[in-house]
Design brief:
single chain, about 300 residues, mainly beta, 18-stranded antiparallel sheet, two-stranded antiparallel ribbon, 1 helix, 22 strands, globular
Length: about 300
C-alpha cells in the first residue's frame, strides 16, 4: 500500500509565456502556503422522459471544463518582480510596474507527490494582499498574497524541472506587517490591518471546444481597505471629499522595498461605531481611480 501524499513535499513553479510551456532549469520556483488550482469538469445527463424516474448512465456526457483556483504565499521582493507584471499587465520598466490593458499568460506546474499537474495559458484574475498587526508576544505576521488564477487546460505527468528555491539575499525575505507605512490624505497613518485588491475581471469564453478558447480582462478594480484607530489624528479621514486624495502603501526591508502608489483614493462615508468596551475603529473602504496618472503604479526595488 502506497504511503500518503503529504503537502510538505509538493513543489510549484511557473513558466512565462503562452503554451506550449517548456519547464526546465529556467523555470520559476516559489514557496507557497496552499493552493487549489484545479480542473473542474462537469458531467451532464439529459433530462428527457423515459417512462421511468431512472436515468441511463450511457447518455451521460462530459461538459466543457474550467481551470481556476487560488495560490497563497508570503511574497518577497523577488517573488513580486515575477508576479507584478502578471497582476498589472505591463513588463517592468526598471523597478516600475505599471497597469496595462492586457495581461500576459504563463504556465503553472505542481508536483503533488503522486503525480504532476500542468495548467496552461494561465492569467491572474485577482490578487489580494493582506496584513495585520501583531498581538503581544506573537511572531510578526507576514504579508500574504492570494492569487486567483484562471487557465485553459490541465495536463498530467509533465516532468518537473531541476529548479531550486533561492533564499540567499534580502530580496528573498518576505515582508512583515510592521515594515509597512500607509499614507492617506497626505499623512502617514496607523492601521491595524489592510486588504489590497487588484481585480482584472477576467472573462472566459468557450467556442466549439471542451476547454477555454479565450481569457480576456474586461474591467479593473483597485480597492484598499484599512482598519484605523479613531482618534483626533484620524477625524480628517471620515467623510472625505468626493474627489479623494492620493495615497501609498510602502514596505521596506533594509535596502529593498515595494511601494504601491494610488492616484486618487475615493472613500464612501462609514461612521465609526461602538462595539463594546474596546477601541473604536474607523473602517475605510477605498477605491483607487485614474487621475492624470493610472490608478496604481508599483515600484519594486529588488535584486531581480
Amino acid at each position: 500500500m502506497a504511503n500518503a501524499s503529504q503537502g510538505v513535499f509538493t513543489k510549484f513553479c511557473t513558466e512565462p509565456g503562452a503554451a506550449p510551456h517548456t519547464f526546465d532549469s529556467g523555470s520559476e520556483p516559489f514557496e507557497f502556503l496552499a493552493e487549489n488550482l484545479a480542473k473542474h469538469g462537469p458531467l451532464f445527463n439529459p433530462d428527457g422522459i423515459r417512462g421511468t424516474r431512472s436515468a441511463c448512465f450511457n447518455r451521460t456526457r462530459k461538459g466543457p471544463y474550467t481551470v481556476r483556483g487560488q495560490i497563497r504565499m508570503n511574497p518577497s521582493p523577488y517573488d513580486l518582480a515575477i508576479w507584478l507584471p502578471r497582476i498589472l499587465g505591463a513588463a517592468a520598466s526598471g523597478t516600475t510596474f505599471a497597469l496595462a490593458e492586457t495581461l500576459p499568460s504563463f504556465g503553472c506546474l505542481f508536483d503533488r507527490v503522486a503525480e504532476t499537474f500542468e495548467y496552461t495559458d494561465c492569467q491572474v484574475d485577482k490578487a489580494v494582499f493582506r496584513g495585520h498587526a501583531s498581538t503581544s508576544g506573537a511572531s510578526p505576521p507576514f504579508i500574504e498574497m492570494t492569487l486567483d488564477i484562471v487557465g485553459k487546460t490541465e495536463v498530467t505527468d509533465t516532468s518537473y524541472p531541476a529548479v531550486t528555491l533561492d533564499c540567499s539575499s534580502l530580496a528573498h525575505q518576505p515582508y512583515i506587517f510592521s515594515e509597512g507605512v500607509v499614507t492617506l490624505s497626505g499623512s502617514a497613518r496607523n492601521i491595524m490591518n489592510f486588504v489590497l485588491l487588484i481585480d482584472n475581471h477576467l472573462d472566459v469564453r468557450f467556442t466549439n471546444s471542451i476547454t477555454a478558447t479565450s481569457i480576456t480582462p474586461t474591467n479593473r478594480t483597485i480597492a484598499l481597505r484599512t482598519t484605523n484607530p479613531y482618534t483626533s489624528d484620524e477625524t480628517d479621514l471620515y467623510d472625505q471629499a468626493v474627489a479623494g486624495a492620493a495615497g501609498s502603501l510602502v514596505f521596506t526591508n533594509s535596502t529593498v522595498s515595494t511601494t504601491f502608489t494610488f492616484a486618487k483614493l475615493q472613500v464612501p462615508a462609514r461612521s465609526p461605531t461602538v462595539m463594546g468596551k474596546q477601541e473604536i475603529p474607523l473602517y475605510l473602504d477605498m477605491i483607487s481611480r485614474e487621475a492624470g496618472t493610472k490608478e496604481l503604479i508599483v515600484t519594486n526595488d529588488s535584486t531581480v
